[in-house]
């Protein structure tokens, strides 16, 4: 080693590695470690945090060894490859982490605003570079180092702004100030992405001879940054992950500054250390506040808070009980104090009438959360209770920190809590159950990255009911407690019809639920006919007056009984609701938007069924907010992308074939973002954990697209001919994805998570590789024919991706995911036809 500083840091890292290994041994043989010094807190009950720190330090150690290598010192391009990988990894890490923050601060389905702003920032960077080409005259090393440093600093500032500015999406159409806040968010969030976009654009445009290798390094770093969110968020919180992204930006600045001067390197490292000093305070000084009015969440009363790979979990006292909050009130569950003596429990009517039908049942609970419902069902002395909970943090705290408070209900001999996704577990389970139960667990979990999940609920689709019925014993029950129970009956009836049941309405009972005031309902589906003894229980006082639908023998007196019976019995009855703008069709995996009760943009409060009106009074109509966001995104993109290009680069509009080039690049932006978002949604069901879906899909697409871009250099002699093959392949692979994917999902859905991740990677990679080729091939062709049009095609591509992220969810709500894929393929083909008509 030539540099004494490198020896010092490597020695220091080795000492810390030994200490961390000692921590692991202590945890294994003695006890968990908890350390607190003022605002500085550290706890490690398992090996995740120490191993994550060890992995990071090992990586840092070998980076130091690598960069102090004499050959490396002289290689300018090697530093560019490292720098562009770091800044791209930082960008994707920040994007994914910010969607997690948005899921807590707001309702989950607004997290997609992040992807729109990221694309807006990238698009604007291309416009600035086109309008001010003199930027390229500055020293490249200093310029990209400066923009990388700006990314790191602005990321921390914007994080603080997001926490402080009280934007409320639900009041966009009623409070003018909220539009101001939305503009601050949209423009502010775009700033870091603008700086990182400038770095990438400058490198790609200044070192054109190495564009394939640079673009590959760019996408490789982005893919790794995306996957890093999985360990980072649980270990250091989502704000902490944003700070790590900021540190990576500063590290990229140091890499770029290697050949620009030692003072710029020192400045970059100084800012990186300064941000690192703030990192321990990520969950205190940068704690995410809940801006939207979600239930009755009160952050100031929180006694426990923890970020996990799926959501943030907070616990607050509530009288003698405690409330477990998911993502700041997006959902909630109650903890009941219990001494652990099951034999002393008296049968609780709160468990549900179904527990009076079966003695000592085998029960499967999907999403038991804090265990209130489990405690109620234990009062009926079930033979076994299996809880399947998606969130690992909930599983951990219920079996550890709060085990004593709830009486260890998940640690009893006849109970078990499994961390898994409900449908995945049921698919691979060989067991059959007397009762399969859910209680209001279909509220959406955020898809970390712009998943656009307007309340998608894969647990209550037609396909889900098939799987439930496959795992019920003869005479067993599906019991669900949630709002919208009449629509639930429509979905279940369709599943029964597909199984050959002639009168599905005779196997379904729906009751209103006094315990759930917001249009709550109790839904009963029996795997067979109801017996007279069971019907007699429904006729008892306290039950009969709550009946909304049931078999004809029950003689239900609800004023809308005839309408409900027709809706459930007639497979086409939902169409009359459709005509007045109410969505009551049987929800499927292709259109899993159960909670979206209206056809898009056809909302009329006077046509909403009576039992759904309380839902709209509380939650409002998301369509208005979507349209406002679409309008603002399109408007700001016109102002900051299209208008500057028109003012400063009108000469490009006089180029031959301009319309066809613009149409081609607009098509690329729109179609790419459509396919990306749909893949994230479709793989959510397969992966189970939404965060894994986002990270695996983005990782696979980015790495594959990087490989495609690298390979596209071989076809630059005939880009039009290559594009004919490539886009045809994209369309065929998309169709194959939707034709073959359900069968592959069915085969592997019951396998372990690593197996499903590997299968997902194999399924996505060929399509992603093809999708990485059209843009560089198009730029190559444009540069050959009309180079002065390049700023315009860059800008129009960015504009398409900005509005496409919102348009995709509108199309999915209206038509379903499969239709969006068909639309994307048609857009790709339209763009190809436009470009093929241009003469070289």
Automatic annotation (TrEMBL):
Keyword Membrane: yes
UniProt xrefs under CDD domains: AdoMet_MTases (cd02440)
Keywords per UniProt: Membrane, Transmembrane, Transmembrane helix
Residues annotated as transmembrane: 12-31, 51-67, 79-98, 110-132, 144-167, 179-203, 215-233, 239-257, 264-282, 626-649, 661-680, 692-711, 723-749, 755-777, 789-813, 819-838
Domain of life (superkingdom): Bacteria
Keyword Membrane belongs to the record: yes
Name of the protein in question: Spermine synthase
Organism: Candidatus Moduliflexus flocculans
Lineage, opening ranks: Bacteria, Candidatus Moduliflexota, Candidatus Moduliflexia, Candidatus Moduliflexales, Candidatus Moduliflexaceae
